[in-house]
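Q: I'm building a small set of examples for a reading group on sequence design. Run inverse folding on the following structure and report the sequence directly after it, with nothing in between.
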């Protein structure tokens, strides 16, 4: 009820997009947000961003500011990029249960003196369609959330920032690293950290493997891309799947009860043939992470028991990063699945990010011809 009340209030306050005279990163609304960790203050903001087609839009986010005095030059910014929570309005982490607990590593980041901004991505906490796993959309929302944080006087934030995300958020972190220099050259990205990132969208969507969430993720992608790009769903899945897809796309994914409903609604999709035509294939290809444009060190963590992100896909992406001479810290976590990859790697990610802000040389697990896989011991 609280979640939908928040969405209703936002919808009443906003038009369907940001006013055309705003600039990306302008803060449109600020409201105090209760329940912040000790020695911190939180706000929920609405800020201006840009859709991939160039339209001005508004996006929501949480900003968490430590109570300690900022250092000279301002507080570093940590942009948290959340895993999949759904595609429907109301699935925003800032309007869901326990938003602070969902930010992996939050206590360590606050203790380090960072201001944390956690974007909801477009279409989840403000009007509009959520372009699910669309890298440009995620990256612009992330970069504009950093700009918005710098525009908050109480944040006293510097231009230096790092990104950290899990699953969909890992996908967002990699795209943010690719777009940062071109889209927001006034900012200084020091590093990008990702746990179990989506790197190959086609592999995630087309091959269910042993992934219990596959039907839900397929539904999110088909429902979202049909609306965001005007694609014909029958050119991706058989018409018989569309009823289950529509039902599942309404489900959020932020609690155990929501997971149960998602699994039940998506159960009829088991065995669905996914046969993308050329237009769908183009979207899948465009949203695969590319190592070439990434110009900062990267931290990647992957559990070897992950049923959602096949570990070999992550290893392949790390090898491609190495071939592009991107410094990579690659953390392979024995016995870790997809759902706990973020929390299990948070301490290592926080330490790695602290070194990036401190200007310490980035460790590099790349070796000639491949990578040296590490573990979590």
């Amino acid at each position: 009820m609280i979640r939908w009340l928040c969405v209703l209030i936002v919808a009443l306050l906003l038009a369907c997009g940001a006013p055309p005279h705003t600039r990306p990163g302008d803060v449109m609304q600020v409201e105090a947000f209760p329940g912040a960790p000790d020695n911190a203050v939180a706000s929920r903001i609405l800020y201006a961003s840009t859709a991939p087609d160039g339209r001005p839009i508004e996006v929501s986010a949480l900003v968490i500011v430590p109570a300690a005095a900022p250092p000279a030059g301002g507080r570093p910014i940590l942009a948290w990029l959340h895993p999949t929570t759904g595609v429907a309005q109301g699935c925003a982490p800032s309007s869901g249960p326990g938003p602070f607990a969902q930010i992996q590593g939050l206590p360590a980041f606050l203790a380090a003196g960072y201001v944390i901004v956690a974007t909801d991505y477009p279409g989840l906490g403000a009007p509009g369609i959520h372009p699910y796993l669309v890298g440009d959309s995620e990256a612009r929302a992330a970069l504009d959330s950093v700009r918005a944080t710098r525009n908050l006087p109480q944040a006293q934030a510097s231009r230096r920032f790092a990104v950290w995300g899990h699953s969909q958020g890992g996908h967002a972190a990699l795209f943010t690293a690719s777009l940062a220099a071109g889209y927001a050259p006034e900012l200084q990205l020091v590093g990008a950290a990702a746990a179990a990132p989506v790197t190959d969208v086609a592999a995630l969507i087309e091959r269910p493997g042993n992934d219990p969430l596959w039907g839900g993720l397929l539904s999110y992608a088909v429902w979202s891309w049909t609306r965001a790009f005007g694609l014909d769903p029958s050119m991706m899945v058989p018409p018989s799947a569309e009823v289950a897809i529509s039902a599942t796309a309404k489900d959020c994914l932020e609690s155990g009860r929501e997971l149960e409903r998602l699994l039940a609604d998506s159960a009829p999709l088991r065995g669905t043939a996914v046969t993308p035509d050329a237009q769908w294939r183009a979207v899948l290809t465009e949203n695969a992470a590319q190592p070439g444009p990434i110009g900062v060190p990267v931290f990647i963590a992957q559990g070897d028991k992950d049923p959602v992100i096949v570990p070999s896909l992550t290893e392949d992406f790390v090898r491609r990063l190495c071939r592009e001479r991107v410094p990579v810290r690659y953390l392979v976590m024995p016995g870790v699945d997809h759902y706990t990859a973020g929390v299990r790697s948070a301490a290592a990610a926080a330490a790695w990010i602290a070194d990036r802000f401190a200007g310490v040389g980035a460790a590099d697990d790349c070796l000639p011809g491949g990578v040296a896989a590490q573990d979590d011991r």
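The longest strand covers residues 40-50.
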